[in-house]
Design brief:
This protein has helices at residues 3-14, 18-25, 30-39, 42-51, 54-63, 66-75, 78-85, 90-99, 102-109, 114-124, 131-134, 148-158, 183-187, 212-222, 242-260, 275-292, 294-302, 304-309, 317-340, 349-378, 383-413, 418-446, and strands at residues 141-143, 167-171, 177-182, 206-207, 226-230, 236-241. By secondary structure, it is mainly α. Its main location: membrane.
């Protein structure tokens, strides 16, 4: 929906032309409809929402922010609530209940049928970040003894055309997962063929307790549209779809960016979070970074005689520490990404260090040479000092890149989150190290 379309819809809203507004609105994707409803008055949004066709309304509801969903449900009758929520995919329903306050959860749960209520309770009992918490029970599986003809008849009868219907999962009489069949495989075989004769036994699956981020990585790695979820007895209990995997990866990326910037991850939107909450998230990290700078202060105090004798050194300190920090961050970010998506393993550490060392040599010599010429032309200092600064730059670049590569590996080895360590620890170590190298070389060459 572009801006022109949005303005047209708002004009219809201003004139209370709800019928025309509804007719125009249903032409758009449910994501666009949800965005439009979220930017207008909530009472008007609810009125428009009630006018939408059932299928569109259900899909639109799943894309609304949790606070808007809560407002809608609070204003609905119990009958309306059940009619809406009962038709959501089970994973969307669980997501909704996890975000709602107890009063809303109770309103929904007490009006659901026993079978659906038991299923939801089962999902809610899975660990929050597990495969079980994001899987859906809306999938199609068949017994291995069925023929293609039987299966196709059942498919037509059930009108299976939803997000999970790309792969057919095959089970035995005890619902144990035996394999899978792509839909196109059924279409090119004879109707009387038993499905067990064409199933692929090399099925990739996950258990209900598997971390949801690992599940998302598997879907991304193998380019699956769905991945089956089994219990400890390998009985098929659900599937995770690619759209849920994308959502997980997006959430993890946002969380990692926050941690790398030394900010406590926040589940709420920036504009919806209070100043106090944002301040609280940032204060502790900034305090730790400020306290960690004591190490740099100690290094500077240790070389006070050098600084007093060579006051010109101070002018190049920011350039040196900034360059070292940037070099370390480049390596750290690259390695964290590689570890997070499985491109790099802990066993690759020697290769990582060797590669980063060679990169550091190339980058370091290039920067040092350019820096030497720059200082000679514009620095107004001696050739010896220019050489001293440039040599310090080369050495700090090498150390920074090696440290930046080692920190994520070390954190992963210790079962820590490397994104948390990246910014604060790298800054502390690299700043102190670069100043120590700088003043040591200056003392040796210039005094």
């Amino acid at each position: 929906m572009n801006e022109e379309n949005r303005i047209e819809l708002l004009k219809l809203l201003e004139t209370n032309n709800y019928r025309e507004l509804k007719n125009n609105l249903i032409k758009y994707n449910e994501v666009d409809i949800a965005e439009f409803l979220q930017e207008i008055d909530k009472l008007e949004a609810l009125a428009i929402f009630r006018l939408l066709p059932e299928a569109i309304a259900i899909e639109t509801f799943s894309y609304l922010e949790s606070d808007v969903q809560e407002q809608f449900i609070s204003a609905m009758t119990s009958y309306e609530t059940v009619e809406l929520v009962d038709k959501l995919y089970i994973d969307d329903m669980v997501d909704l209940l996890e975000e709602m306050p107890n009063s809303i959860v109770n309103k929904i749960m007490r009006n659901l049928k026993g079978e659906k209520r038991n299923l939801i309770n089962e999902y809610l009992n899975y660990p929050k970040d597990s495969a079980g918490s994001i899987m859906t029970s809306a999938f199609f599986s068949v017994n291995e003894n069925r023929t293609i003809e039987d299966i196709l008849k059942k498919m037509r009868k059930l009108d299976l055309l939803d997000e999970t219907f790309y792969t057919l999962y095959i089970t035995d009489n005890n619902n144990v997962l035996k394999g899978y069949v792509e839909i196109r495989e059924m279409l090119i075989n004879q109707p009387d063929t038993k499905i067990s004769d064409i199933l692929n036994e090399n099925v990739v699956y996950v258990e209900t307790t598997e971390d949801k981020e690992e599940v998302a990585k598997l879907i991304d790695k193998y380019e699956f549209l769905t991945i089956p979820v089994v219990d400890k007895e390998k009985k098929l209990v659900g599937v995770v779809t690619f759209d849920d995997a994308i959502q997980v990866l997006n959430e993890e990326t946002e969380e990692d960016f926050s941690k790398m910037a030394a900010i406590t991850p926040n589940e709420n939107k920036y504009l919806d979070t209070s100043i106090f909450e944002l301040s609280k998230m940032r204060f502790l990290w900034l305090l730790l970074l400020m306290m960690s700078s004591t190490l740099s202060q100690f290094v500077i105090n240790s070389f006070n005689d050098v600084i007093t004798a060579l006051t010109g050194l101070v002018a190049f300190m920011p350039m040196l520490t900034d360059s070292a920090g940037n070099a370390g961050s480049q390596s750290s970010t690259t390695i964290i990404r590689g570890l997070s998506i499985g491109e790099i393993e802990l066993s690759d550490t020697p290769k990582i260090l060797a590669k980063e060392f060679m990169i550091a040599l190339v980058v370091g010599f290039g920067l040092a040479a350019i820096n030497f010429v720059r200082i000679i032309l514009f620095g107004g200092v001696s050739t010896t000092m220019a050489f001293s600064v440039s040599l310090s730059l080369l050495i700090t670049i090498i150390f920074s890149k090696l440290i930046g590569a080692l920190l994520p590996v070390g954190a992963t080895l210790l079962k820590w989150d490397p994104t948390i360590m990246a910014a604060p620890l790298l800054t502390t170590i690299v700043d102190s190290m670069s100043l120590f190298v700088y003043f040591t070389i200056a003392k040796l060459l210039l005094l």
